[in-house]
## 1
Amino acid sequence: MIISRTPYRVSFFGGGTDYPIWYRKNGGQVLATTIDKYLYISCRYLPPFFEHRLRLVYNQTELCQSCEELLHPTARETLRFVGLKQDLEIHYDGDLPGRSGIGSSSAFTVGLLNALYRYKGQQVTSDRLAHESIYIEQQLVGEQVGSQDQVSAAFGGLNRITFLLNDQILVEPIAVERERLTYLNSNLMLFYTGIARTAAEVAETYVSSIHHHHDSLLRLHAMVDKAVNILLGKGDLDDFGRLLHEAWLEKQTLSPNISNSRIDETYSTARTAGAIGGKLSGAGGGGMLLLYVPLEKQRKVRDALSDLIHVPFHFENTGSAIIFEDDGQRYEESENLRSSEKYLFLDSKTNK
């Protein structure tokens, strides 16, 4: 048996500029981090004693003769991509619910891809996992999704991810002082709104006309630079929360589906209770609500949002890793073959 562990992510700034239709003309960048909440994929050889030759277990159970019969589009296309069609049993488990804006769909793609390669006896780099997951989701499955979630899931950590016009992707870890990073983490609160939706559903309401929002997206792009400067010590860290609020207001101009009256009321309640700023994690429409709240105001915010589930979390920097193999040895591939260089390049056309 092979078990992969892949982190979920929280995106702070720049969301919307990571869609190919935008960054191939204008460039894009995001600031995001992975957190210590994970998606697990287990993969094992299926003995020849069953009528089915492939078993996939997620919130449904599919029993098939071949991956061609799978209803789960990402699993089907990922198995096709790596050339494994049958004789497998695959299970999916996650610490957080799917469709909640924390990159679960891409974590599934990255984690499944990682597990299947190891099942075949191959070790793959983070940049290959990220690139191939983007290709599977955008080209093979045909999802209307951006390119940031796959990169975060594969690499892990707090990164500025830059999308160049030529399809290269630059991953830059942000070297924040430990004390400052701990302070940031302690001032962030995550709440589950209970509203499930996919990023593609929300994105479809504005991506096709994304160039009509040119000025807004340029401002969202510029906020990444401002946020990085704040993290690196140029200004009060509470300015990070204020910038989140500024981005919240700007993001509303992209589509009426990014928020709704229930979410707006929740966010307003949180701000009244002491939150400085916040955002919906992911494309919007529901899922997880991230808030920047000074420590002394957090009890009041928890009380004000007592009808929501509070999800404590910490930053993590491992990315997708194989944590178990059937010979009994456990692996903690904390860098997952990450390059020792600070800058890593992906080219979504050449797969290099």
## 2
Amino acid sequence: MSLEVIRNKKPPRLRKIKFNLPEVIKFKLDNNLQVYFIQKSTLPLLSMSLVTEAGSKYDPAGKKGLTNLLAMAVDEGAGDYDSLQLSDQFEILGASFSISCDQDSVYFSLQVLKDEFERGLELFSTILIDSHLYEADLSREKRKIKTRILQTSDEADEIANEVFEYKLFGNNNPYAYPTIGYSDDIDSISLQDIKDFYNHFIVPENSFLVVTGDYETESLKNILNKYFRTWSRSSITKPRITDADIEQPGLYIIDKKDSVQSEIRTGLISYKRNDYDFYARSILNLILGGQFSSRLNLNLREHKGFTYGVYSRFIYLMSSAYLFVSTSVSSENTGAALTEIFKEIKKIRNGITKKELEFAKSSLIRKFPSSFESYRQIASNVIGQIIHTMPEDYFETYIDEIKKVTRERIIKAAEDNLFPDKLTTVIVGSKEKTAAQLKDIYQGEIIELDEKGSSLQSL
């Protein structure tokens, strides 16, 4: 018996997808630490993330990379354990523990089986409260960071990303500097700098805890109080984050001799997460460059064959936001590719089609439930909601809000967020192969930079 397969007809939907958003239970511990608990019993797991607003934006001048160095050194020994012993203890539990940082925050993360949760929490709290922070450990982590900085100094994509943010924000804004820091700055960071920063910023009142998993609320509260009770430091005063220098658009090139490709980054400062119509911006970006069928990708990849892929994205930080477009093209197509990017950014301000709008809405709505599948995804969504002070009913209303976005709102969002004459553009590639092309397509001044973003000369 043969089975006929009809490939040109979409199969019928069998049933409506059932999706229940997680309830977030809030409570405070005795040390004033805010806890957000999402009860989920599908697996005998607990996932825990402690988030502290102590990111690299607070690195002091001349000591860029301090927060990243701290995040690497904190778990190099704590309590009765050295670094290897701590790693062994987590491995025995089958647990995953990590510390990381970005421009805004430091993250202490643990995922562990329910039966081993108390022991995992004990180790977690020991690292948080009783980290050794020894000079030998700090020196070892410094060497690792400097090696990584040396490696990335030859990676065109890393150079493009770092210098783009540096030129976009301006050197008076802390978001302009890479989280990993600079080699010379790393040398100047002392053990006392690390300890002072840690004791000043990593405090309960500057942090919150997100826990996802199979536990009773009161039992969770009691066990968290047991292990976090001694973590109590005074409240802090944080320095103000200055505004970005948004009036300095331009075209910049970093010469990477003999390169056969050019890394292109272009974009501009935007409204913060809650300062403008987020839903309209989400759909606008999806149509522009946020999906495979976006205008940018169809143009540069499918029609012109300039690249394997190009994408755009709104990046939302706590104190700022920006839109950027990123791609890599062959050297001989650098000018032509940049022309098409500028054209698409300008063109989308004139409007979108009904088909584009409906496809983008459908894409966002259909993939929304999948962003809550794993325990870590749930925690990540809740963390984002807290960091950006989104409404408590944000997840419940998200789909309805997406459905309500009109073509008129998209056009308004494009007019209010996309300004072709204010784009900051950074290209890392062969100056010899690309300079003439760029002069042909760009009317303003083209400035050559070094790999840290300092001006060398006008071309």
